[in-house]
């Protein structure tokens, strides 16, 4: 006889918001009452709160994490003929932000231990690049993948040697620490996403840019409102990309809980790390010393990944692959001319990583059950 399966999702959005529902309803009601849906008072309040949280002087809300990346590159005047160095092992938006502006992504392989861009490989690339290529390299854009910062000291050292600004794709890393600094406060600017599956998620799309540079902040503010400071007087061609007042109101409430929720994620990661430590077919995530991983995802490498994932699904346990096809091998980027084998660490990660359920609403028992089941299947 079959017993009923306890289904464990990757995350359960309604369960996440249930405990704070009254506060959210109040915040939403305030927006309904004042009616200032575009750049209303909650937007500036929430921008200030995020700037304080990240330790930057400025924060600029926008419509999504994807737009945050686009706005940052637009503010750097990235255009046709320019190059931007980034990783192929990320969400699509990291690279599409570059190509949409007509620029060329220069894709550099990852460190297989952290899945973040390999600073030494950037160094090797720049050492053999022509003077013209170096001059046209407008940004280095590391991604703080899964919630852990890239090797920022090494990246900043290279960037300052070549005079190239660093734009952090911090979409998965709000609250991550890197040797005393916060994600988004290390490079020229940080790009955040409030997509519902991020650690700080809205009730829809939303994004934010953080920076300490007042001129850069002013450019970003201009670009997010069609390049017009004064309505109908356009200094540059920008976009329509604002954070909705409604999203800011919701996110303002949720930000107050973020550290507690991140603490839960770190606790869950510790449960997995203990339970899966001695399974030879599994490689655990690593947390670099001096850094605080916020575990937007808990990702292991596992042999026979697809078999393990199918067996987990049969046991009622959700898992996900971030990301099955590295960006240099995506159909839409075929024109860039990369081929299989060019970025071997990213390709091997794409073939072997598996994200397990991790979200603040999961109970310890749920996670112990997932870990035990993974152990049985993979062990
Ligand atoms: C989520 C994400 C984005 C895009 O954010 P959206 O808000 O969905 O547009 C960009 N980069 C990375 C690494 C992400 O995880």
Instruction: Quickly give the structural class.
Output: alpha+beta
Count every helix, treating DSSP H or I runs of 4 or more residues as helices: 14
- Apparent shape: globular
**H and E string:** HHHEHEHEHHEHEEEEEHEEHHEEEHHEH
Mean pLDDT: 97
Extended strand count: 15
**Strand order within the widest sheet?**
1-9-8-5
- State the share of residues found in helices, binned by percent: 25-40%
The hetero molecules present are: pyridoxal-5'-phosphate
* C-alpha-based Rg, rounded: 21 Å
Largest sheet: 4 strands, mixed
Distance linking N and C termini = 25 Å
Low-pLDDT runs: none
What percent of residues are in strands? 5-15%
What can you see in these coordinates?
This protein has 379 residues and is α+β, with helices and mostly antiparallel strands. Helix content is 40%, strand content 14%. It contains 14 helices and 15 strands. A hairpin with a 2-residue loop joins strand 10 (228-230) and strand 11 (233-234). Helix 4 packs parallel to helix 5 and helix 11 (258-275) runs parallel beside helix 14. The radius of gyration is 21 Å and the shape is globular. The two termini are 25 Å apart. The structure holds pyridoxal-5'-phosphate (PLP). Pyridoxal-5'-phosphate binds next to helix 4 and helix 5.
